[in-house]
UniProtKB/TrEMBL annotation:
Protein family according to the UniProt entry: Belongs to the FliD family.
Subunit-structure text: Homopentamer.
Protein name as it appears in the record: Flagellar hook-associated protein 2
The keyword Coiled coil is annotated on this UniProt entry: yes
PANTHER family in UniProt: FLAGELLAR CAP/ASSEMBLY PROTEIN FLID (PTHR30288), FLAGELLAR HOOK-ASSOCIATED PROTEIN 2 (PTHR30288:SF0)
Length: 468
């Protein structure tokens, strides 16, 4: 009788592929199954815990983000301009337009534009071309309360003089240009045109010359560019308007000092024509702010519902079903949205009174008609309802959400706790793997010893069989 020695191979812990040389057993396969049987249940428990913690961590992050958007929306109410924004309408936009800053007094003004402000503009006599020379000396400019000078060489052309005026140190009020115009004989001449940069009589300018030819007043040489030898195209003049019959003079066509907060932009003078300018309340910022609250609140409710409900169709529970944090903050918020507030009014005491309602499913909506009615009736009470630092909606929402959202608050604490437990699981997984590796090594040693013994027995039996 003889015993057959198997030479099929498998893989050892060291990476060498073999099976029992003496026994013919798949030692590696047996060891692997034994190790898996030992470790799989424990590994599955750790994996399930890890997955559950990560799911909760993600859900808490979603909930915190949606709650933060609600807090951002109500904090926007604290911007006072939200309740003080103004509109400015005019009855004849071809004559003027108007704008008003937040807080401008409400009312209607009758405005008559008698004269527009203009900038002074003067032109020289015509020269053969822009490269013509004029003379030499110095041009002295007086602009408003300032002055500057331009030196002119005998070789300087009209173009050089233009450029030197524009680049002169201290020149903040005059712009020079060259215009080529018809000379009346079929050709053209070049004229130096000087224009005040700003309108109004206070921004007019004068030009005097120190002419190298010794005569500063004639029309020959550099003195040809002095004011007395220039043609005035337009005079420096102020705008003149009447507001409710009272005259206002301004150096500019943008009049912003007559009525505090109101700017009148004049475009056309029509003596005797009155334009009604009405400053009113602009409800769009508060409407937008409240609509943002509605949008963010509904997004939060949708997120909260998906995280805390049970889907019977999919047989799947939300990640925060029964969670104390999710339930507590939601109940507190819904209570705030329906309660009365101290406003000093008997007609505007809660969000429903200004058009905000929350239905039985937690969906919020805004009735802009009701909001506008409340703002028309008493905008200060609406402001108190939303922004009172102690009892307003914004303050109350902050008092509910701050403990959850602030640094080291509920969400931060729970996140830190979960991360700590995830770290512990990672350590437990590493420890388990180390134990399993040790267990595998031990099993391999035992099976290898057994296989060696079987091999020796096979050899002995083979030897004895030959003797027979």
């Amino acid at each position: 009788m003889s015993t057959t020695v198997s030479t099929t191979s498998s893989t050892s812990p060291s990476g060498i592929s073999f099976s029992g040389l003496g026994s013919g057993l798949d030692i590696q396969g047996i060891v692997t199954q034994l190790v898996n049987a030992e470790g799989a249940p424990q590994q599955q428990i750790l994996t399930n815990r890890q997955t559950a913690f990560n799911t909760t961590l993600s859900a808490l992050g979603q909930l915190k983000s949606s709650l933060s958007s609600i807090q951002t929306a109500v904090d926007a109410f604290q911007n006072l301009d939200t309740f003080r924004t103004r509109t400015a309408t005019v009855s004849n936009s071809s004559i003027l337009s108007a704008s008003a800053i937040p807080g401008t007094a409400l009312g209607t003004y009758q405005v008559e534009v008698d004269q527009l402000a203009t900038a002074q503009k003067m032109a020289s006599a015509g020269y053969a071309s822009a490269t013509s020379t004029v003379g030499s000396g110095t041009l002295n400019f007086t602009v408003g309360s300032g002055s500057f000078s331009v030196s002119v060489a005998a070789t300087d052309t009209l173009t050089n003089i233009r450029d030197n005026i524009n680049a002169a140190t201290g020149n903040t009020g005059v712009q020079a240009s060259i215009i080529n115009v018809d000379n009346g004989s079929g050709g053209t001449v070049s004229k130096l045109v000087m224009t005040a940069l700003n309108t109004g009589t206070s921004n007019g300018f004068t030009v005097t010359a120190v002419d190298s030819d010794g005569n500063n007043t004639d029309a020959v040489g550099l003195s040809a560019l002095a004011s007395n030898n220039l043609t005035q195209i337009s005079a420096a003049q102020d705008s003149i308007i009447k507001i409710d019959g009272m005259q206002v003079t301004s150096a500019s066509n943008s009049v912003s000092t007559a009525v505090t907060g109101l700017t009148l932009n004049l475009t056309q003078a029509q003596v005797g024509t009155s334009v009604a300018v009405t400053v009113g309340t602009d409800n769009s910022p508060i409407t937008t702010a409240l609509q943002t609250l509605v949008t963010n609140y509904n997004k939060y409710q949708s997120t909260n519902a998906s995280l805390t409900s049970y889907d019977q169709t999919a047989n799947q529970a939300g990640a925060l079903l029964g969670d104390v944090t999710a339930t507590g903050v939601n109940n507190a918020l819904r209570s705030l949205m329906g309660q009365n507030y101290t406003t000093g009014s008997t007609t505007i005491q809660n969000l429903a009174d200004i058009g905000i309602q929350v239905d039985k499913n937690g969906v919020m909506s805004l009735d802009t008609t009701k909001l506008n009615q409340a703002l028309a009736a008493d905008p200060n009470v609406v402001k108190t309802l939303l922004t009172d630092p102690t009892n307003g909606v914004s303050a109350k929402v902050d008092s509910v959400l701050n403990p959850y959202l602030q640094y080291n608050g509920v969400f931060d604490s729970r996140t830190a706790s979960i991360n700590s437990q995830l770290k512990t699981i990672t350590t437990q997984q590493a420890d388990l793997q180390a134990r399993l590796n040790q267990y595998q090594t031990s099993l391999m040693a035992q099976f290898t010893a057994m296989d060696s013994y079987v091999a020796q027995m096979n050899q002995s039996m083979s030897f004895l069989s030959k003797l027979n």
